[in-house]
Amino acid sequence: MAETHPPYSSFKKLSSFFNGITAVSGVVLIGLGFYVKFRGAALTRVLGLSHAHLHHVGYLCLVLGCVTVLLSFTGWYGVTKENRGTLLFCSLFMIFILIMEIGVTSVVLGFLPTVQDMGLEHNVVTLRTNYKGFNEPDDYSTDWNSVMEKLKCCGVKNYTDFSGSSFEMMTGHAYPRSCCKSIQTVACDGHNVSTDIIHQEGCLPKLLEITKTQSFNLSGDSLGAAVIQLPGILATLLLFTKLG
After folding, report:
1. 140: phi then psi, degrees, rounded to nearest 5
2. What does the mean pLDDT of the chain come to?
3. Is 159 in a helix, a strand, or coil?
4. Are the C-beta atoms of 130 and 166 separated by less than 8 Å?
5. What pLDDT band is residue 41 in, cutting at 50, 70 and 90?
6. In angstroms, rounded to a whole number, what is the distance separating the alpha carbons of residues 33 and 5?
7. DSSP 201
8. Three-state SS for 158?
9. Long-range contacts formed by 112-118: CB under 8 A, 24+ apart
10. Nearest 10 degrees: CA dihedral of 76, 77, 81, 82?
11. Over the stretch 89-114, which tens digit does the pLDDT of each residue have?
């Protein structure tokens, strides 16, 4: 005798499949959170408040990713046991997460012009006030030294940002050693501003480019996760109605 199947067996298989896809989207969100946290985070940290929203959104992606993975396994359990309560809970919670992901996309893209507009003057003033020098142990100076060495740049706009700064008043130098193309060279004396000695380009354009890349990755992947999760939510709700 041929094996009989309940009329909703196809919906169970479909829902189980999409729960697996949802779990993958959760892993993507977790990876996205780590990407924002560790890739370029130390460099763009010097942008201060104008960049802080990316870190907050990165942490949010980590949380949403972990919850999504847990919900996908819970949903799979609900499908296997044909538990309507579990299916409804997972569906409603996933709708909330989907809305949050769309919100992440909107916030990140909405803040990007603000970061670009407030970046220049704010960071020039902050650099002139708070930067101490090449070997200073404070976090702000350390971060800026790391930025200038790794991105091969000097100051926010260029080396003239240090003119009249706290750094110049304390050391008498026109620029720090981290601006030099070769820190060990004798010509890197804080006064020689030749193009052969120091980097002439400012760091802000490069920092904004990193920020823009992170913003587009965050928004694109968040929206992509939402699109991937939508069929799973619909399949689970459809199974919920079939079990009623």
Report:
1. -65, -45
2. 83
3. helix
4. yes
5. low
6. 42
7. S
8. coil
9. 112/211, 112/212, 112/215, 114/50, 115/47, 115/50, 115/51, 115/208, 115/211, 115/215, 116/208, 118/50
10. -50
11. 988 999 999 898 888 888 777 776 66
Please answer whether residues 158 and 202 qualify as being in contact, where contact means their C-beta atoms are separated by less than 8 angstroms: yes
Would you call 194 exposed, middle or buried from its count of C-beta atoms within 10 A (0-12, 13-18, 19+)? exposed
d(CA 91, CA 124): 49
For the record, the structure tokens of 92 come out as: 């409603």
- Helix axis angle, 204-243 to 49-81, nearest 10°: 20
Hey, is 180 helix, strand or coil? strand
Average pLDDT over residues 220-229: 87
- What does the alpha-carbon distance between residue 55 and residue 89 come to, in Å, rounded to a whole number? 30
CA nearest neighbour of 123 among 191, 46, 30: 46
Tell me the two tokens of residue 62: 């980590």
Q: How far apart are CA 205 and CA 37, in angstroms?
A: 21
Sign of dihedral through CA atoms 14, 16, 19, 20? negative
Cα gap 76→170, rounded to integer Å: 64
Whether this prediction's pTM lies above 0.70 is answered by yes
Token readout for 68 is 């999504």
**Which residue bears the tokens 């819970």?**
74
